[in-house]
Amino acid sequence: MFIEDECQIVIERDKIFKSREFCSKVKDLTKLYNLSFFFVTEGASAVSNNGCEAVKHARDCHIEWEKQHNFDPFEDWSKDKSDV
Fold this sequence. Notes:
The protein is 44% helix and 19% strand. It has 2 helices and 4 strands, in the order ββαββα. It has a two-stranded antiparallel ribbon. A two-stranded antiparallel sheet has the order 3-4. The longest helix is centred in the first third of the chain and has 21 residues. It is globular and about 35 Å long. The model has no long low-confidence stretch (mean pLDDT 84).
């Protein structure tokens, strides 16, 4: 199964699940180091920022990209236990 938006961005459903799992693991790893980060992969992204301007800038740019491609930049899939 594929998820497709109006701009013809196609992402395999299985890839989204894997991307979300990977982002969760990255987020857990960064907690060990107490670092700010913004991370994006196919179908998911994660951010944790404690005032780093570079991380904020990267995330802000990605928010604009998501809006242009009809994605919800504020979706919190980490709390969504249902299927994609």
